[in-house]
Amino acid sequence: MDTSEFCKQPVAFSVAACARASWNIVFTSSSDSEPLYIYKGDNVTAKCSILPSEYENTPIFWYRNDTEIKRSSDKFQFTSNKRILNIFNISDPTPINIQCIAKDQNLQYESEKKTIKFASLGTKFEVEPVAKSASIGETVKMDCLPPKGYPAPTVHWEKNGKALTLTERSRKEFVIQGKIPHVTCLCPTCENLELLLEAISKQHESLKNVPTKCHDILTQTACSPLTQLCANSECLKCPTFDALYRDVRDIDVLHYHEWSTGNNSYPEKKLCEISGSDAYDLLERKLNEIKHHYFIKRIQSKAYKQQIEELKENEVLIHVDYSENFKNKQQEEIKSAYYGQGQFSLYTVCIYMGGKAKCKNIALVTEENDHSCDVTFKLNTFLLDMLKENHKFDTVTFWSDGCASQFRSKFAFYYMTCKDKELNLSWKQFEGMQIQ
Q1: What confidence tens digit (pLDDT) does each residue in 374-408 have?
Q2: Residue 145 per-residue DSSP state
Q3: pLDDT tens digits, residue range 4-51?
Q4: Residues 208-236 pLDDT 10s
Q5: Which residue, 335, 336, 303, is CA-closest to 317?
Q6: Which CB contacts under 8 angstroms, 24+ apart, belong to 340-344?
Q7: ∠ CA(20), CA(24), CA(28), 5° rounding?
């Protein structure tokens, strides 16, 4: 069997790449306000370029922490016209602010202040890449956690001694996992509309500048603030939809993606094909849906915040949701152990008690991984019993997303009513699946 060998680079390479001995700063009237990070013993050369050419003979003054640097010394040296300030062997770890000001009796120009701070980087990696052998075509994951440092250090990879950049070809071979956000809580109503708008903007020249985000499209097709008449498509003041999207009808065939449930119970992102006139009708329906969706979502968000602020001493608000399952794996394990990794369910909880504005965060861990209404009932039972040990309450409001198998079920609510006959219980689901 053909194999490829992956070997780690020396730690010293990454640490040495951070070192520099001198730094240059150009001060203008709109200089970059981001701090400059240096290392102990470095030199800094600062150039003052705030003056227009017609006033180039105006005297220049330099300031350190709002105190004028009046003369050259071992640490500070000026050029003859004071256009350039050299700062040598900076060793004081205290941050310093440098500024140049040009002024005389008739005018004054000031640069932005530039902060100089010390950077630091440890010499020991938290997690080092380890050598691995793999078959041709097999995916290999290499973990690397850099040393602690300030500002936060970044990791750069090399392949055969050369910097690894993700070109179209190498992108298929190498994926830097930490740089790829994995978003798993998108609202299907919003996402499907944005996928349709994105496809429309690419199909017709006159439509390439139309909004492709839900918030932007609402500002152009609905009143602000959104009213119930707008949400019900009964408002006579809303901007006309046809003025923006009449050219959609001119598209011969539109290809777009949509999240939908196919033969199995889980949604899939599918490629769809429709005519321009059908796309126009579909877009109009989706825009009407999104108006109602946004209106309900904002009303719920307002009610959620208001209920938290107005909680009484005998009331509790509990916001619950399942997190992604936690994999029980070892930092170093044999190859076959990968296929036998166990998982734990994480049930995340935010608790608001009457008279206390701050949220109490709890995560319940269980080996049950089906996330069913039965498991949810057992977790909520444990949660309420734990709260009763230290608090007195008779009213509980649960807030959650609308997942039918977990929360939005008659069984889930029935179980809770059987738990305690004396407890006043209500359950509310968010329109947008997650609170936004």
Answers
A1: 888 888 888 888 888 888 888 888 888 877 667 77
A2: B
A3: 333 333 333 334 344 445 677 777 766 566 788 888 788 888 888 888
A4: 777 888 888 888 888 877 888 888 888 88
A5: 303
A6: 342/367, 343/369, 344/369
A7: 150
Contact between 407 and 401 under an 8 Å Cβ cutoff? The reply is: yes
Residue 340's alpha-carbon distances to 24, 324, 345, in angstroms, are 55, 18, 16
Amino acid (one-letter) located at 98: I
3-state secondary structure the chain: CCEEEECCCCHHHHHHCCCCCEEEEEECCCCCCCCEEECCCCEEEEEECCCCHHHCCCCEEEEECCEECCCCCCCEEECCCCCEEEECCCCCCCCEEEEEEEECCCCEEECCCEEEEECEECCCCCECCCCEEEECCCCCCCCCECCCEECCCCCCCEECCEECCCCHHHHHHCCCHHHCCCCCCCCHHHHHHHHHHHHHHCCCHHHCCCCCCHHHHHHHHCCCCCCHHHHCCCCCCCCCCHHHHHHHHHCCEEEEEEEEECCCCCEEEEEEEEEHHHHHHHHHHHHHHHHHHHHHHHHHHHHHHHHHHCCCCCEEEEEEEECCCEEECCCCCCHHHHHHCEEEEEEEEEEEECCCCCCEEEEEEECCCCCCHHHHHHHHHHHHHHHHCCCCCCEEEEEECCCCCCCCCHHHHHHHHHHCCCCEEEEEECCCCCCC
